[in-house]
Design brief:
There is one protein chain. This protein is α/β, with parallel strands linked by helices. Helices cover 56% and strands 13% of the residues. It has an 8-stranded mixed sheet, sandwiched between helices. The chain is elongated, with a radius of gyration of 21 Å. Keywords: Amino-acid biosynthesis, Cytoplasm, NADP, Oxidoreductase, Proline biosynthesis. Its EC number is 1.5.1.2. Belongs to the pyrroline-5-carboxylate reductase family.
Length: 275
């Protein structure tokens, strides 16, 4: 029998995970979503056939897993309002909210709970996500496997064994779709300068990125080797890559990821501090 999973909050990310679960064969009858307004829930109910409720306490009464998918700024209020109910049933807690530590969430919910932090990214909305997960010491192997199953329904899932590494996950996958969108934007602009129309430049850049990522995922070769394979000595690709290296692309990416991880640490401190 499938575990009962309740999502507290039914925004885009929660909706994507629920859709992925159903499409992967997870029984819709075992999934419940909550929101403050039924108008938010009706599309999910109609499209996925899941259970919905505007009553958080009723929704988690029989839940084996509670997925916290509300905005980080509102998480404390939600957790404290659920404390008594959560302590009564003691489900696995999975948080997809950025910047809130497992200890903070556990404290707000009353303590002594199995808590998993998950950092998904927006491509989860199209089934191509990359999620990092961290489990506290109360999480069982079976609960880890269930969390993996849930997140693999919308992409890949990777576990880290130390919670601070979630900040690295934020830098390399959580925030990183924006890095590639910036690159698409820059390539489109450059293509237009070279004479292409904007639509053609955009489609070619995006398809090339998709193709390169697909090749890299399917290959047993490192990115460095794949790069060398398309660089003929004295050719166009070698010239372009040499320019990117000289322009400091590696340092720029490293700096961006360091800044992202640092901001994640700052947000964790800000959101988790006592009033």
């Amino acid at each position: 029998m499938a575990s009962n999973v309740t999502f507290i909050g039914a925004g885009n990310m929660a909706g994507a995970i629920m859709a992925g679960m159903v499409q992967s064969g997870y029984p819709a009858a075992a999934i419940t979503a909550t929101a403050t307004r039924d108008t938010t829930l009706q599309p999910l109910r109609d499209q996925l056939g899941i259970n919905t409720s505007t009553d958080n306490h009723a929704a988690i009464a029989n839940a084996d897993v509670v997925v916290l998918s509300v905005k980080p700024q509102g998480m404390r209020k939600v957790c404290e309002s659920l404390r008594e109910s959560i302590q009564g049933t003691r489900p696995l807690i999975i948080s997809v909210a950025a910047g809130l530590s497992a200890d903070t969430l556990e404290q707000w919910l009353g303590g002594d709970l199995a808590v998993i932090r998950c950092m998904p990214n927006t491509p989860s909305l199209v089934g191509a996500g990359a999620s990092g997960l961290f489990a506290n010491d109360n999480v069982s192997d079976a609960q880890r496997e269930l969390a993996t199953q849930l997140m693999e329904s919308v992409g890949i899932a990777a576990w880290v064994e130390e919670e601070p590494l979630i900040d690295a996950v934020t830098a390399i996958s959580g925030s990183a779709p924006a890095y590639f969108f910036l690159m698409f934007e820059a390539m489109e602009d450059a293509g237009v300068k070279l004479g292409l129309d904007a639509d053609t430049a955009r489609r070619l850049a995006m398809q090339t990125a998709l193709g390169a990522a697909t090749m890299a995922m399917r290959s047993d070769k490192s990115p460095a080797e794949l790069k060398r394979n398309v660089m003929s000595p004295g050719g166009t690709t070698e010239k372009a890559v040499a320019h990117l290296e000289q322009a400091g692309l590696r340092n720029a990416l490293d700096g961006a990821m360091q800044a992202c991880a640092q901001r994640a640490r700052e947000m964790s401190a800000e959101l988790g501090k006592d009033d």
